[in-house]
Amino acid sequence: MAEKKRKGPDRERLLKSLAAGFIIAALVFALGMSRSYGAARAVCDGFFVAAAMLLGVGGIMAVRNKGAFDVSGYGLRAAINQALPMLRREKETMDEYRRRKADERKSSTELLAAGGIYLVLSVLALIVYELVV
User: Fold this and answer.
1) pTM score above 0.85
2) Residue 73: how many CB atoms within 10 A of its CB?
3) What digits encode the pLDDT tens for the residues 12-59?
4) CA distance linking residue 126 with residue 7, whole number of Å
5) Cβ neighbours for 69, distance < 8 A, ≥ 6 positions apart
6) Which class for 93: exposed (0-12), middle (13-18), buried (19 or more C-beta within 10 A)?
C-alpha cells in the first residue's frame, strides 16, 4: 500500500528552520547590542529580521512550487545548452522539464510556519519594548 503524504509541517525541517531563525535573530541581537540599542529593542529587531527572512524565502519557495519560474528556468537552460554544448544534458521538452522540477520541489510550509512564529515573537517583544521604554 502506498504511503500517504503527510499534511502539515515536517518536524525536522521545522526545527531546522527555527534554528536558522534563531541564529539570524542572535546575530541581529548581537549587532544591536554592540550599537547600544538596549536589550528589548535588540530582541525585537532580531526576531523581526528572522521573521522577514524566513517568510521571504518561504514565500518565494511557495511561488516557485506553483511553477512560476519554470518557463524562465527552461529558457535559461536552453540558452546555456546553445552557448556551451559540452554542458548539455539530454534534450528534454518543456513538459518533461516541468515534471522533473515538480518532483524536485520541497514544501515551504516549515519556513512559513517558523517565520510566523518569529513574527509573533517580534510583536510580543515590541509590546514589551513599548511598555518598558
Assistant:
1) no
2) 15
3) 999 999 999 999 999 999 998 888 778 888 899 999 999 999 999 999
4) 33
5) 63
6) exposed
